[in-house]
Amino acid sequence: MGGAGVTAKSAIEGLHLQPEELKEPPLPEVTRLLDANGKEFAQFYYENRESVKLDQIADVMKTAIVAIEDYRFYEHGAIDVEGTARAAIKNFSGGGVVQGGSSITQQYVKLVLVNSAETKEEQEAAVAPTLARKLKELRYALAIEEKYTKSEILERYLNISYFGAGAYGIQAAAKRFFDKPASELTLWEAATLAGAVQNPSVTDPNLGKAHRQRLLERRNVVLNRMQELGKITKEEAEEAKAKKLGYKDVPVPGGCDQSDYPYFCLYVQHEILNNEEFGKTPEARKKFLQRGGLTIKTTLDPQAQKASEKAIRKYVKTTDKPVAAQAMVVPGTGAIKAMAASRKFGQNKKKNEISYNLVADVAHGGGTGFQAGSTFKPFTLLTALSQGMKLNDGFSTGSGYNAPSNAAFRDCKGNRVGEPSHTVHNSSEGGGGFKTLTTGTLGSVNTFFMKLEEVVGLCETVKTAQKLGIKRADGQPLKEYETFTLGINEMDPVTVAAAYATIGARGAYCKPMAITEIRDRNNKATSYKPKCKQVLDEEVADAASHIMSGVFTKGTMSGVGGIGRPAAGKTGTTDAYTAAWFAGYTPDLASAVSIGDPRGAFKHDLIGVTIGGRYYSYVYGASISGPIWKESMIGALKGVEATPFTPVNMERFGGCSAGRCAPPPKKKPVEVDGDNGGGGNDDGAFDVATPPDGWGDANGGAPIVP
Fold this sequence. Notes:
The protein is an alpha+beta fold. The protein is built from 23 helices and 23 strands. The strands form eight sheets. It has a five-stranded mixed beta sheet with strand order 2-1-6-16-17. The protein has a five-stranded antiparallel beta sheet with strand order 8-7-21-20-19, sandwiched between helices. It is elongated. Keywords: Carboxypeptidase, Glycosyltransferase, Hydrolase, Multifunctional enzyme, Protease, Transferase.
């Protein structure tokens, strides 16, 4: 034995090996998501690891690992010549590999090389049984011994090692195996984990009874070795060996499917993977997310989230085929406060779970969305107001609309898209007659908005929508047809909520944001601020809010009602009842709610359906989406002082323009508040002679103000 040791030592010295610097990339660690209050709601990882300092590890654990893996660790350098020689002799006499001779330092080097490998070939090279690899490993080990103290090497070794059952590092292993931190490990628990390191695939307790038995036997080997070395007494060893394995199989939260708020979690995950702020390449961003050991503070507001979930549960069941989805966004910041859906997130189709983000677009893990319907009409309204039209400017409309020629509409490439043979009809939500910007919006009159889009321009309307962040959920270019104003494009709630938040913020569009701060493993914080841009004239936004606030009292949501504070919004019922929406806002919070069938909206429409235990002949925007919006907004804004809208500039938008006023009434108007002007509606919705408060008269006079 001595001769072999001298020979090995002489051979190593004869190689004239020089230390070689080892690159030690940060270890993959768990990334945690926090809500706006700092409470964790999700975590994901490439490897389940939580690095700790050596003083956070029980002394008995350090003793056990050194005893079984490298008992002369504190006495030798990078290589244990005596141990290597002893292993060589045993392997020679045993006719195979009976005992390993690598020191803890050498094992650490190998694990770093495996951890750093980015390809399968690099991983295989890191463990190849070749002399060249062993010599390179030894050069790295020499450098590590010069760079760190023994305690530092042991700390790094315990944090990088894999123990089985998906646990990387001693802290994760202690929690996974025994439901306690590494600092509280007992003798028999420490011996169990020390025994698992040698060949975790063989002793992984998660793989069945045989594996657990092998782990138990390996634990006892460690205890015997500790006794041999005088680290524990025979009595302590026997007492520890009498213990059962004690594996607790503690579930480790990981992945969005295990989060309380899976859709928000998915959004954050994809935001990092797609945003160059977090890495120049997709691979760099993936590493940043999976290996970063990050703490990500988000905009998620538990109060708003719970209010959304509660309202959705009230009207739509998790077992229903149609699904409701909602997003809440703050005007002026773009902060996403809540993302919820009626379906549970997951892979189990038998339980009606769904495996993509129902609330967001494809870029954030979502699907293709649903046609937005009449929630697109405000973009035409905003375009008209931007072009100088007044609240009571209008047109006579019939029950059907046909483009006057194929040149009536042009897309933003100058192509003619109007189809004179296609007739657009009004839904039962809105009738024909003379309609103004105000009455046409409140009644959601299709034929009026087709005529309005013809007047202001299709491309101009598309550009307005784009300024407010409108883009298709599937990432494809917007469909620029004459029915654009009727919401033929498939959308997601986050995008629609952010667009409506722009109106609530008086024309300031803010890109939806879910992340406010990221702290790295070294506790270095990077803050992320709102990205906003003024895209509308403030007074134009004020005028739109003035009109759309009447939706709750005089329009399509009058049967549902408001939320007890200034609010504005728009229902959205699509052609053939394939989907239904409500989008609305206050100056403090905006929200969009959609409902549709993800199996295929046109094949599975919302006609004659039972949703939430209630039967609906037809599902309108105000049937389900509207009530969900109302109840969730009330809950989300509880305790928040109401902010009023900025009053409309009546000098600029009041009354009507010459040639666009309502025709004179057929009967003598009744004087109201001293104004002899008659109302401009002939659809029977309101008394002609007594227009509602705030509406202009038929002759373009001053509006009637309460």
